[in-house]
Structures are given as structure tokens and as C-alpha cells.
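TASK: fixed-backbone design
INPUT:
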């Protein structure tokens, strides 16, 4: 699914009004595939935000993250599935907003792709396709992605429909 590209609303004092280029979507996908930790922000039923690093994969245009149901962030998404995910860095910013979907089981093809991505990124985990088939996965489909490599030159918002 190709995103719609636009300029995010940024106050003039940040210099974004001089922007003349956009970040390429391929750059965003590469960072999402290669980054070892995603910082995920959740808000639970009490309205308190919480942020923590989680491991994850970018497969088929979605983020897949790991997490125990006993963690606070997993309890938070039970009350509010809306999340933000931020990658490390100030000079190459990527912020993803979307909704969490809990897959009880992963279909064979998806389980194979997730296991292959996990083996490439986190070989120390030893995750197999069978694990995803049995336990499922936690998927975040991006709704918007805000990014820049230089806020005065290329601030970019990608919007996904549907």
C-alpha cells in the first residue's frame, strides 16, 4: 500500500517552511527493518502515558513487536490499542502512529516471513515459524509516519489509507 506524502505541520521557528525535499519511503522502510529497538508509547485506561523499548520486525508494511501479556504496555493496549513508535536518533527521526492488532495465530506464509526476519535480525532468539503459528504476533499497522533527516529541509508525513 503506497502512502500519501505531505508536509507535516511544524511551527515556523523550526525552519521547516524552507523545506524543499521529502524523505524517501525506502529510507524509512530500511530503518524500520534494521533498527534493533523500537520505543513504543502507550496510554492505558487511567490516561497515563508510558514508553519503553521493545524488539521488533518490519514485515509486509507492518511492525511486529514482542511482549508478554503481563507487561504494563500490553495491558495498556488492552484498554487503548493506539500507539506511537519512535526510533532512536535526532538526526534521522522516524515516528510511527497506528493501532495494535493481536493475532492469535499467524498463518503459515506470515509465520515463515516473520521467522526469517527474526532470524536475520535477532539470531540469538532462535525464533521459529512454528512459534508464530502457535502464539501469534503483535502487529502495528502504520496510519501515519512522520520523518526527517533535517527538519529544515525534508520533514515528511506519510499517510496510509484504510
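OUTPUT:
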Amino acid at each position: 500500500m503506497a502512502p500519501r506524502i505531505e508536509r507535516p505541520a511544524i511551527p515556523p521557528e523550526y525552519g521547516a517552511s524552507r523545506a524543499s525535499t521529502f524523505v524517501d519511503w525506502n529510507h524509512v522502510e530500511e530503518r524500520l527493518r534494521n533498527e534493533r529497538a523500537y520505543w513504543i508509547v502507550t496510554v492505558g485506561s487511567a490516561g497515563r502515558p508510558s514508553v519503553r523499548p521493545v524488539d521488533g520486525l518490519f514485515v509486509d508494511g507492518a511492525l511486529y513487536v514482542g511482549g508478554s501479556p503481563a507487561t504494563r504496555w500490553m495491558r495498556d493496549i488492552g484498554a487503548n490499542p493506539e500507539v506511537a513508535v519512535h526510533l532512536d536518533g535526532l538526526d534521522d527521526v522516524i515516528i510511527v502512529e497506528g493501532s495494535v492488532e493481536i493475532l492469535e495465530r499467524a498463518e503459515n506464509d506470515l509465520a515463515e516471513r516473520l521467522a526469517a526476519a527474526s532470524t536475520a535480525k535477532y539470531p540469538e532468539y532462535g525464533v521459529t515459524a512454528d512459534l508464530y503459528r502457535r502464539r501469534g504476533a503483535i502487529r502495528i499497522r502504520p496510519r501515519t509516519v512522520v520523518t526527517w533527516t533535517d527538519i529544515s529541509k525534508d520533514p515528511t508525513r506519510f499517510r496510509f489509507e484504510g
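COMMENT: The mean pLDDT is 94.
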